[in-house]
Design brief:
single chain, 208 residues, mainly beta, 4-stranded antiparallel β-sheet, globular, ubiquitin protein ligase activity, WD40_repeat_dom_sf
Length: 208
């Protein structure tokens, strides 16, 4: 990855590349819909992926921005986030309440992960080896394993209620888990997850 190269996506349906040495964009990729996120490959300075409101993940080689290497199709709603879990694999999140795993050399989905709820808010996404974690709009953390489509485990945050909320059911609250990350370790593997929700509660969880 080139430390001087930046990428941005916008509602103008463009991905723009920038150099920290220049004021103006150095290149542009034309998308077909609003661009929701952009990520560089961790193993190549020439490759990036971006998620779009067209329900797809687009994978490009920056040496040829006229057309994508691959367009990954399968989500039913906008792809709100995409990230590389390795140099060869991408996981995407959508407001269709699914995560999907892709290989950059294959046009089909390797696995779909279902269980969490994600229809309007960003609920976080983090990977660690073969494990993928995300939040949910039912105020819970969800953990998936790359080889299984079903939820591996969940952790529900306690609901914070004020006096005005005393008659509301727990499921009627609008709290959601908004951020997740794995504790960084030198060898890259970790069994500790940190998650935060929309009420400002942070949990440190150890997988045993």
């Amino acid at each position: 990855m080139d430390p001087k190269l930046l990428a941005s996506g916008s509602d103008d349906a463009k991905v723009k590349l920038w150099s920290t040495n220049l004021d103006n964009s150095v290149a542009s990729i034309e998308a077909k819909a609003n661009v929701c996120c952009v990520k560089f490959s961790p193993s190549s300075r020439y490759h990036l992926a971006f998620g779009c409101a067209d329900h797809c993940v687009h994978y490009y080689d920056l040496r040829n921005t006229k057309q994508p290497i691959m367009v990954f199709k399968g989500h039913r709603k906008a792809v709100s986030y995409a990230k590389f879990v390795s140099g060869e694999e991408i996981v995407s999140a959508s407001t269709d309440s699914q995560l999907k795993l892709w290989n950059v050399g294959k046009p089909y989905c390797l696995c779909s992960f279902k269980g969490h709820i994600n229809e309007k808010n960003f609920v976080g996404l983090a990977s660690n080896g073969d494990y993928i974690a995300c939040g949910s709009e039912n105020n819970s953390l969800y953990l998936y394993y790359k080889g299984l489509s079903k939820t591996l485990l969940t952790f529900k945050f306690d609901t914070v209620k004020s006096v005005l909320d005393k008659d509301r059911k727990e499921d009627d609250t609008n709290e959601f888990v908004s951020a997740v990350c794995w504790r960084a370790l030198p060898d890259g593997e970790s069994n500790v997850l940190i998650a935060a929700n929309s009420q400002g509660t942070i949990k440190v969880l150890e997988l045993v």
